[in-house]
């Protein structure tokens, strides 16, 4: 098991609503640290985050360098919040890696989010 650390900033832009979700967002991220590059993706939301009860799914394609290896891979996310308690599953989609990132498997966890929106993450590779 290898553990890497990185940060990212994210921009969310509301997108055209879809019948299956309460909200749709296009996302773009800039990554630094052991992951250097950019990613772009799509997020769908449902529920009422104001009351602490909501969920989202997202898929994003990362392009760049991970621990010195170049390529792309896809992350998929499943986030829920019930009675204000969040849970998050954030994994590398199996088979999504290209070039030197081919075959990678792992999970990403968010360790903290700074006031300026910078997310500090850990990526555990299998």
UniProtKB/TrEMBL annotation:
InterPro entries: DUF3224 (IPR021607), SO1590-like_sf (IPR023159). It comes from the Bacteria. Pfam families: DUF3224 (PF11528). This is DUF3224 domain-containing protein. It comes from Brachybacterium tyrofermentans. The lineage of its organism: Bacteria, Bacillati, Actinomycetota, Actinomycetes, Micrococcales.
